[in-house]
Specification:
Length: about 650
Amino acid sequence: MQTKESKNIFKANVYSVLVIRLIILLFFLSFSRFCLYIFNSSIFSTVSFFQLLQAFLYGLRFDLSVLSMLASILIIGNALPLGFRRNPIYQNILNAISLIVFSIAVIFNYIDVVYFRFTLKRITFDIFHYIKANGGFLDVAPGFIIDFWYISVLAVFSITLMVFLFTRIRLNRKIEKTGWRFYSWSGMLFIISIALTVLGIRGGVQLKPINIVDSGLRVPAQLSPLVLNTPFTIIKSYGQQGFTPKHYFTEKKLKKLFNPVHSYKPINSVPDDIDNVVILILESFSAEHIGYFTHGKSFTPFLDSLFMHSLVFKGIANGKRSIEGIPAVLSSLPTLSDNSFLNGPYAANQIEGLADILNTKYYHTAFFHGGKNGTMSFDAYAYASGFQEYYGLNEYPNKDDYDGHWGIWDEQYLQYFARKLDKFERPFFAALFTLSSHHPYKVPKKYEDNLPEGKLPIQKAIAYADLALKKFFETAQNMDWYQHTLFVITADHTSEGSQVAYQNAYGQFSIPIAFFAPADSLLKTRSSQSPVQQIDIFPSVMQYLGIEDSVLCFGNSIFNNNPHPFAVNHFNHQIQIFDSTYLLQVQSGESKALYQYKLDSLLKDNILKEEIAKNLLILQKAFIQQYNNRMIRNNLKAIRNE
């Protein structure tokens, strides 16, 4: 017959209760991590079951690291060789702290289930800089919760179940009898507990603790987000230091391999009276949504028709966020780490951009964005890069045109933009960043039943933005400045993809880059390099305008007939470098994967061969050496430093 005392033997064991509670916390941490795959499986459609299993199991190493970090108070608090460790108040404090911390950790994993489809990487600590800088974020957050209500419900259910199971594992809270045996055994177990906790935090016995980049050691780069968990990437990226100086090559050889300081000779047959420049940066305009590229269902009938008269490229974005895309387009500055330039440790560096150069040629320069002033620090960037004027929501005259979320509807703001340009003295340079194709993807009520719908909610908003562009050009073509203007049309970054080919490391960076000049009928016939990236826009405009000044651009002019064109970006803690045929993925200076991305758009076949990858790897190292060292030395202005 069991006695009451025997029934409570399990409850009396501090270590058994602790282990079971840790297993419960680990389960919910791992489950919420893998929900990223469950709700985004189409993005990983080319991955085999074995690879998924490998990613999940390897990810347990990172889960255990976070478990050890976040549960360290619980572990050490229960392992202390002191008699009061069973005290109810003491235990309640330990348990409450642990459950609150792990609830937050699980919530971040669930947030990434949604956020990942827009960035293709786990959230890092710079998200807090982004929220702080983005004045409209809190306004749209409720919309995200409503749109993805099922994730919110799952998160609440998971946390509730975690708390329930955790608290059901009860501990006999009698004060323990102390003596030499108690202190001997408890002291030894305390030391073992600390050692195991440190080992768990480090992720093993290797020389260095595991870090974000270690996620790609055992699995392909595209599976790194399934290996990592969001609390880990946030913790590991906190207080992230700046770039490490690189010394792959001597300065002499480095300049031969890659020199970002350029000066270009004017190109022939450009009409002399084209002097204005208008750059239209379209929010989330992936190539996937544009019929000109897909030859399928189009949400951009106006752009499709305009591109027939333009020099057009299926370009490569240099980042996955607006805060990365804007400096890439206007200052030829790519983002090659988790920190964007505007939020990173080098945000105070002196930079130059197209506006800075054109100011010296007596241009009137202005940046337009219908969002709240201060959003993502665009106004600060605009002035830092040389724009004389910034027009945001504060400057817009009719607040009745506010969309209720981000700023002014594209249709009304583009008309305002045209009228402002009509008052500028020639020559002028103006950049405009649209916003209506941003989540929550609302369109004005009068268009709700008149615009095409697609597989993604954004596609109706894309159709609305395209309509707004059509009306802008209809207005502009009746103004005197129109015939004297070069228009550049591109996107800040891509949106989530609906087709498999637009959900990987190539397709998720595919955007339009188009050059259109009403008075230059030969522009569309020009031959040019491939690939073309956002950071090529600044030097291309310089050469088109016939400006021969030296400039510091990490891209190249598309009109310069570069025999070795390339594109570069940062994806899942790896550097990607493209040439006309291959995509090479590099991590910590080593080649990890090589794809023939034009023939293998799904990136199924990693054909990594040293002889093929060698030249791209050399170019990548030269690029990184120039980029890192110039960022560190604040050497980003050719006119000032060269």
